[in-house]
Amino acid sequence: MLNFGTIGSGWICEEYIRGAKDTGLWQLTAVYSRDKARAEVFAEKHGAKLSFTDVEAMASCPEVDAVYVASPNALHYEQCKTILGHGKHVICEKPLCAQAEKVRELVRLAADKGLVFMEAIMFMHLPQRKILEEAIGRIGHVNMARLDFCQRSSKLDTYLAGSLPNIFNPKMETGALMDLGVYCVYPALYLFGRPERWFVSSVLMKTGADQSGAITMEYPDKLVSVTYSKVGQAGAGSDFQGVDGTVSVESISTLGNMSLRLKDGSTETLFGRDEKYLLMSHESRDFYRYITEPNVTREEYLRCTELSIETAEFMEQARSSSGVRFPSDAIGR
Question: Looking at the domain that runs over 2-120+279-289, which CATH code has it been given?
Answer without folding.
Answer: 3.40.50.720
